[in-house]
Amino acid sequence: MRPSENCGDPRVRTWKIMVLPSLGQPDVPLEDQWELFTTLCHILHEQKRFEELERMTFSALGSKEFMRDKERAREMEFMCLLACIYNDSSYFAYNIMRELVIKNPESNRCWNLLNLIISKADDFRHNRFLLRLTHKHPDLVALGLLNGHNCLVAGTYKYSLAEYTQVFKQDKSNPIIPLMLGLTFTHMACQKFSGKKHSLVVQALAFLNTYVEMRGECQESMYNLGRAHHQLNLLPQAVHYYKLALECPPAEETPDGPRLDLSREIAFNLALIYQWKSKCSQDVHSRSEIVS
Question: Under a CB-based contact definition with an 8 Å cutoff, are residues 84 and 96 in contact?
Fold first, then answer.
C-alpha cells in the first residue's frame, strides 16, 4: 500500500526516497547472476531434469538484464532451443529454430538442427514454411533436400524426384543426393500400378552405384545397396551385398558420437531372406509329395 503524499511524517518521506529506488537495483552483479543461471542449467542437464531446465531457460528470457546484451541474448535463445530438444518439446523448439533458420539460411548447423526437430515433430507445419522459404532461397541445397524428404515421406515421389534432381544439378559431390534419387526410383518401381518398372529399376541401380562410387565401399554403402535390392525382391543380389557389408569393418568411433555398426541389421535382414527361402522350399517339397 502506497503512503499518502500528504502525509507529514518525515520518516515516511525518507522511506519513499531511500527504499523504493533500491528495488530496481539488485545487490548481486549481473555477471554473478549469469554464472549462477548457467551453473543451475548445467546441474539440471546433468540430472536429466529437462522439464525444469526448459522452464528455467524460458523464464530467463523475460529478464531485461540478460537480454540487453545481444551476444548473451543469442546464447539464451540457443539454451532455450537445447532445453526444448532435450525435453522433446518439438512445438516450441520448432518456433525457435524457424527464426534461427530465417536469420542464418547458409548455416548447415541450423539445417541439421531443424531436421532433427522435424523428425520428432507430430505436425507438418514445416512443410509450408520450407516451401515459402524456397522462393527466397532457390539455390540452397539443404532446403531442396528437406523439401525432397517431405515429398518422399508423403508418397509424392515425382515431386521428390524433381527436388532431388534440381539439387543434384547444383551439388554433384554430395553422395546422399544420388542415394536419395536411387531410393526414390526404388519406391516408384515398387508401386503396384507404376509403368515401365524395368526402366525404373535400371535408373535406381544406376544412381545407387553412383552413390557407392562417391561414398566408397564400406559397411554403410554395401548395406544400403543390399537393402535396395531386398526391397526390389532381387534376393540373390541382396544376399551378395549383405555379405559384403558384413565383411567390411564398422565405421570408426568419433569423439562426438557413438560407434555406428550395422552388423545386427544386416544379420536380421539375411535371416528374413533365409527364412523366406526355407518356407518356399518346404512348400515346393509338400506340393511334390501331394502330386506324387
Answer: yes
The answer to whether the pTM exceeds 0.85 is no
User: How many CA atoms lie within 13 Å of 51's alpha carbon, on the beta-carbon side?
Assistant: 0
Range of the domain at 218: 172-249+263-275
Name the one residue in this structure whose C-alpha cell is 515346393: 284
- Which is nearest to 139 in space by CA: 101, 162, 106, 172? 106
DSSP 8-state class, residue 232: T
- Residue 204 in any domain: the answer is yes
| Residue 291 DSSP label | H
* Domain-located, residue 229: yes
- Residue with C-alpha cell 548473451? 72
Decide if 207 is inside a domain: yes
Digitized pLDDT (tens) for each residue of the chain, 292 residues in all: 444 455 555 544 444 444 444 445 557 788 888 899 899 999 999 999 999 999 999 998 888 888 888 888 889 899 999 999 999 998 999 999 999 999 989 888 999 999 999 888 877 888 889 989 988 888 899 999 999 999 998 889 999 999 999 999 999 899 999 999 999 999 999 988 877 889 999 999 999 999 999 999 999 999 999 999 999 999 999 999 999 999 988 877 666 667 788 999 999 999 999 888 776 665 444 445 444 5
- Interatomic CA distance for residues 122 and 107, integer angstroms: 25
Structural domains counted in the chain: 1
Asked if residue 202 lies in contact with residue 170, where contact means CB atoms within 8 angstroms, the answer is: no
First and final CA of the chain: distance in angstroms?
104
CATH code assigned at 193: 1.25.40.10
The Cα 169–Cα 147 span in angstroms is 16
